[in-house]
């Protein structure tokens, strides 16, 4: 469960990434946008990679819940890119293990969706991510 501070920091980071892109994300901008001190930010997220991992985790968990509750309009894949080896390989082991677990649950949920056009892009995307992740191991 995220604290209010962590939620605010993740929300701020998400907005900044949508505005500027993942590569341009600056940790200094995150805590300022969220209204917290630099020290408060680093208590929760030690670096940019841990922040990206947390954004990805939150998205995977929220998406899995949305699928289980059939709230398909709420699905988002803004930060699922973190599961790709090009980013994932730079994360700490503990973050990778959490993402692996959440990704597996999300993949199972996506695979259980009906085979209709509405979900074909999502299903193909997660099949691609899964294959890419297997190949990288």
Automatic annotation (TrEMBL):
Keywords: DNA-binding. Pfam families: TetR_N. InterPro entries: Homeodomain-like_sf, HTH_TetR. Residues 26-45 bind DNA. Residues 3-63 form the HTH tetR-type domain. It comes from the Bacteria. It comes from Shewanella benthica KT99. This is HTH tetR-type domain-containing protein. GO terms for molecular function: DNA binding. The keyword DNA-binding applies.
């Amino acid at each position: 469960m995220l604290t209010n501070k962590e939620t605010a920091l993740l929300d701020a980071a998400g907005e900044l990434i949508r505005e500027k892109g993942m590569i341009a994300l600056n940790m200094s901008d995150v805590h300022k946008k969220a209204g917290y001190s630099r020290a408060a930010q680093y208590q929760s997220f030690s670096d940019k990679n841990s922040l990206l991992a947390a954004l990805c985790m939150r998205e995977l968990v929220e998406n899995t819940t949305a699928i289980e509750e059939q709230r398909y309009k709420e699905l988002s894949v803004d930060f699922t890119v973190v599961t790709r080896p090009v980013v994932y390989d730079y994360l700490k082991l503990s973050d990778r293990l959490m993402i692996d677990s959440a990704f597996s649950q999300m993949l199972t949920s996506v695979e259980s969706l009906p085979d209709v056009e509405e979900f074909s892009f999502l299903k193909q995307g997660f099949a691609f991510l899964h294959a890419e992740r297997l190949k990288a191991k």
